[in-house]
C-alpha cells in the first residue's frame, strides 16, 4: 500500500506541482491518522488547484 500512495503522490506532484504534493500528503495523513481537519484541508487545496485552470 505505501508504494501506491507514493506513486499517486508523485503523479499529483508532477501534474500540479509542489502544492499538489502537499495536498496529497495532507490527505494521506488525514486518512491514516483519522484526522478530519488534515483530510479536509488536503481536499480543499486539491480542489482549488484543479479548479483554478477553468
Walk me through what this model shows.
This protein has 54 residues and is mainly α. It is 87% helix and 0% strand. The protein contains 3 helices and no strands. It has helices spanning 2-16, 18-33, 36-51. The protein is flat. The N and C termini lie far apart (33 Å). The mean pLDDT is 86.
What is the helical fraction, as a range of percent?
over 70%
**Parts with pLDDT < 50 across at least 5 consecutive residues:** none
The geometry reads as flat
Distance between the termini: 33 Å
Q: How many β-strand runs?
A: 0
Largest sheet properties: none
- N to C succession of SSEs: HHH
Q: How much of the residues is beta strand, in percent?
A: under 5%
Q: Return Rg in Å.
A: 11 Å
Mean pLDDT rating: 86
Alpha plus pi helix count = 3
- Coarse structural class: mainly alpha
In short:
With 54 residues, the protein is an all-alpha fold. It is built from 3 helices and no strands. Helix 2 packs antiparallel against helix 3 (36-51).
Amino acid at each position: 500500500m505505501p508504494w501506491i500512495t507514493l506513486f499517486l503522490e508523485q503523479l499529483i506532484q508532477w501534474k500540479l506541482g509542489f502544492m499538489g504534493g502537499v495536498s496529497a500528503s495532507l490527505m494521506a495523513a488525514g486518512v491514516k491518522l483519522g484526522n478530519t481537519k488534515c483530510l479536509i484541508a488536503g481536499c480543499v487545496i486539491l480542489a482549488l488547484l484543479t479548479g483554478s485552470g477553468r
